[in-house]
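During the no-cost extension, the postdoctoral fellow (Dr. R.K.) reprocessed legacy sequence entries with the updated structure-token encoder. One reprocessed record is reproduced below for audit purposes.
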Amino acid sequence: MAGSSGVTAQYLRDGFLRGLISAIPALADPSLDEAMADAIAQGEAQVQMDLGTRFQVTHFLPQMDAGVLAPVASGVEYEFPYTWPGRVPGDGFTRIKVRVRPIVQIVSMTLYVPGALIPNFPVPLEWLRVDRQTHEIMVAPTAGSAAYALAFGQGFMNWRLPATVQMEYYAGLDETGLSQWPQIKRLVALRSMLLLMPTMSLWVNPGQFSSESADGLTQSRNSAYMFKDMEDRLEKEAETLLNRILDVWEGPSMLYL
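Re-encoded structure tokens follow.
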């Protein structure tokens, strides 16, 4: 999963680590860059999963057969088809949430039902009402097509059909999109720091997991590390920030209403 949030090792050094480097010069060692890059990559992947997005506009293609997937270029992913009708209440209209947001473009929606009178039904794009940020699509047949839509829809009355809706679409945040949500970069930096701190602690004090008695004859081991208090603060900030972003993208949770 490609990601490019803008968070770099230098970004962390100029931000969260700036004060620590003054007190602990070892953290400025370029040898730590590899561990920092790995933590940032993991942090980006975690935030993309938590927010249901990608840090580049990605082309999603439907795939459901048992064959070998064709190779794809960077920025292209396969997705398993969706259930028809969607699980989101729609006041009589089908609503489907795609898996990644924000939606940039819907290329096609096709209902695939082997054995049906119409096994492949391309849903006209003019029937679709798209909420890009909440990644929700409402299927609303136009007036001139209502009779045809009803005839087609009767075959689905009181049925839920898994792996029926094949979607091709583009979704994700490009550089411009990310610049509109600076909170996301902050969240990636927080997640990256949380992943990096155990390595930082060992880097600064390799002997931290053992302690020697006063007489030098016995040694004990413990699991604490020197950045525990900082970890607690950053974890709390990360969870708060994640919830704030999701509240804006999805609306406040019903638990808080």
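Helices lie at 9-14, 18-23, 33-51, 146-153, 175-179, 182-204, 228-250. The mean pLDDT is 81. The remaining legacy entries will be reprocessed before the final report is submitted.
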